[in-house]
C-alpha cells in the first residue's frame, strides 16, 4: 500500500468514526429529553445505526455502490443541517452547534468519498487486493 492509499485509509476510518459519534449523539440526545423511553423509536434508531455501520464498512472495503450511496446520503444530511440552522435562527447559537458539526463532518465525508485522490487510491487498492466485485 502506497502512502496516498494509507492516507485514504486513515481518513476513511476517521470520517467513519465521526459519523458513528454523531449518530450515537443523536440517539442519546433524542432519548435524554424524553420523560419515558420510546422503545419503537429506539429500535428504529439502532437499526439505522447498524445500517450506517454496514454502509460505511462496504465503502471501506471498496464497494462502488456504497461509495455512491454514502455521497448521496451525506449530501442530503448536509442539506438537512442547513435547513435546521435556517429554521432555528431565533435560538441561541449553542443550540445550533450540532448542525454546524454535522455540516463539517458530512461535508468532509462528501469531499473524501466523492472527490479525494487518497480515497480513490485506497478504493483501488482495496479492489485490487481483495478482488471485490462492485
Task: Describe the fold and architecture.
With 134 residues, this protein is an all-alpha fold. The chain has one domain. 84% of the residues lie in helices and 0% in strands. The chain is built from five helices and no strands. It has helices spanning 3-32, 39-60, 64-87, 93-115, 117-130.
Summary, kept brief:
The chain is mainly alpha-helical and 134 residues long. The protein contains 5 helices and no strands. It has one domain.
What radius of gyration results from the CA coordinates? 17 Å
Tell me the overall shape.
Answer: globular
Number of H/I helices = 5
How would a textbook summarize the main sheet? Answer: none
Provide the structure class. Answer: mainly alpha
> How would you state the average pLDDT, rounded?
93
Number of strands: 0
Features:
globular; mainly alpha; 0% strand; 134 residues; 5 helices
Chain-wise SSE layout:
Layout: H1 3-32, H2 39-60, H3 64-87, H4 93-115, H5 117-130
